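Why this split exists: single-chain examples teach little about how molecules sit against one another. For that reason, every record in the complexes split bundles all components of an assembly together and asks for one structure covering all of them. Below is a record exactly as it appears in the raw files.
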Amino acid sequence: MARPTPLSGFPEWLPDGRVVEQHVLDVLRRTFELHGFAGIETRAVEPLDQLLRKGETSKEVYVLRRLHEDPDAAPERSGQLGLHFDLTVPFARYVLENAGHLAFPFRRYQIQKVWRGERPQDGRFREFVQADIDVVGAGALPYHYEVELPLVMADALGALADLGVPPVRILVNNRKVAEGFYRGLGLDDVEAVLRGIDKLDKVGPEAVADLLVAEAGATPAQAAACLELAAVHGSDASVVDRVRELADRHGASTELLEEGLLELGALVTAAAERAPGVLVADLKIARGLDYYTGSVYETVLVGHEDLGSICSGGRYDTLASDGATTYPGVGLSIGVSRLVSRLLSAGLVRATRSVPTAVLVAVTSEEGRSRSDAVAAALRARGVPVEVAPSAAKFGKQIRHADRRGIPYVWFVGDADQDGAPGQDQVKDIRSGEQVPADPATWTPPEQDLWPRVVAAG
Amino acid sequence: MARPTPLSGFPEWLPDGRVVEQHVLDVLRRTFELHGFAGIETRAVEPLDQLLRKGETSKEVYVLRRLHEDPDAAPERSGQLGLHFDLTVPFARYVLENAGHLAFPFRRYQIQKVWRGERPQDGRFREFVQADIDVVGAGALPYHYEVELPLVMADALGALADLGVPPVRILVNNRKVAEGFYRGLGLDDVEAVLRGIDKLDKVGPEAVADLLVAEAGATPAQAAACLELAAVHGSDASVVDRVRELADRHGASTELLEEGLLELGALVTAAAERAPGVLVADLKIARGLDYYTGSVYETVLVGHEDLGSICSGGRYDTLASDGATTYPGVGLSIGVSRLVSRLLSAGLVRATRSVPTAVLVAVTSEEGRSRSDAVAAALRARGVPVEVAPSAAKFGKQIRHADRRGIPYVWFVGDADQDGAPGQDQVKDIRSGEQVPADPATWTPPEQDLWPRVVAAG
């Protein structure tokens, strides 16, 4: 077998990169759990018809068939299966399927791989990990969850700062503000306006104005007003006043706009208190997906805005419905692979070592291996990660074995004396060269050496 | 959308089942890391030609295509892709692809989902989680790893006993013993003999004897000798003596047999010391796969032998080869989904609650929600998982909200006095009804209530 080459769009990390990814996942999970979100996992596959309900992403779906499936056989009862392209569609199905066993409002996090058959680019993969939180209600869901959920993400992403992850900025908008304003202006094709505004960062305001005229039926003055709204941003409640002033000036005030402004104002005010500087109201945030009905969120890594959003989501009034009950929700999703790939490729963070092992127990002779095994077991029983040397090579070679893996300590088992009484063990810090007597029943490495850590690089 | 129904073979757990699964995974991961195994993940897909190298499983592979793939377009450069059906094939590819960046012997664990398009049965799924450990060498790999790896699994599975998981028995054999004995008898189609012996538990000794005569070219006497060997089992080195005696009697002693017996004896002796009662030499263990060349392992959950093996593996001399270097290895794989599904379906273990939340902070009025949020933040900052009540309902309803989720504590924020000074908070253990004054800056629940635990049921 020749040396295989990587598959574009299917990222894999070397062990030290995986330490970073695992650390990020551990921090996210812990934060979500501290906020009372229950972890679930859903299967990787969904019936194809469910995956295609939102037409937009249909081209990206991977469809499965069994290799030796009889093409003439009746299709499986469940129909054709595809790999999920996000965690929202499967979660909606899970909620409907298990509604009788869940307590609402249901808070869940879900950290899994998803697949999209897109053209791979920097930060855009065909297989990647998402970390989602959602709260879903049965029938109704109070607005305060739209304030809470981005603050949970602020907490989670903020907790990564200790690892050397740059700060984030969560940009928020409210669909009611946008829709209320557009309708107040007299523009009723709200989706067309949102699609145009969504392109602002890519094509610039002039091109968007042209688009709004061409595709949303706007006059040049209406298009200009939409662009004025999109230019409003700020991290305190003054943004609300500025939008009101704008709406008054254009005669675009509506009840829906006012409802949206009260919500956006509450979010910005709470955020200024609980996560100062992290949340910014940004009225140009549109989010392509048409199922959002209230708050929408995007998140940039400060200094890495080119990467695009690393955490997005919003409020949707109909996550799912079984006819009798409708389930509204609000949620955000972190693009973990996108974030981790940038952390690694830009050299922002590094793992202190690529193996869990803190101590390599040296082997003096193959006959004495069981004594090294016993030392390792004693250390492990007290929570110290240990491995035993692969062979009774010269100590210099055993130390190099540890050094190549970043293992900080090498343990030397003392020679038994002539009466068979155990000798004095020694442990060597191979970074400093310091070697001291040690007892496996009591010795512990310093806290910062016990497990691999992730730290800011450079 | 009508209520969806589960897909046969694609297990999913309710939140309390997921607590159990996550706990099992956490214990396995911690044990593997304490033994110095580095965690890696590989992509879910491999080129189809790689998946089909071991012909036996080819019928089980799920093949991928993009929904809107142009059937006339040139195939993707990487060729057709399929979902991996185990973690060994991807690991072999990962080792070859990254050999220049890995330090050998390379110890890795890998916990991921795999997919097989098989007919679903009890304990046999189409999507399931495996937890694998392997040590792989470059060029050579000493025998002592064949002793170490099943003992790591004994440690990992033993650590689950605290959760209420029944004890396990790891059955070991050595291919060299089997092959050496068969060849000593004059049977050269070793694979055919192994295939026959592998069916022993299913069809019984008479049918296997017939098979050996019909398919392995054995005389009835040779077949009887093979069955005599397969009947040998025991947990100390006396099994070695019994096999030697058997070989002498049948004139079947060979160098290969003796080499295998020395290895098997070393394994049984070490296991008797380090994991008493867990490992049993069982000479009928054949393992279907023809790439094993030394030790082979299977594991049964005591009292649940009908479930089949929950942890299998062995030594293989050629995990992978790039022409210049061959990579021998030894590894075992736990069928986590098989194990967890039995734990849940047989009611062997249960989670103490289905949500991480230890404390529900009650809300007195929506205007006062920010005070409840502040209490929650103070508790979380000290590592207590908390959520805030969804609405300012009557306290009785808020307590029921906690009770339905198994949240043990409800926190009541004290009313501020007329001067705005904060009132005295109270925390109620809703199981006992006991309510005491508490300060969010200092109060902590008892250790056993802090996080959900997994305990023996009943």
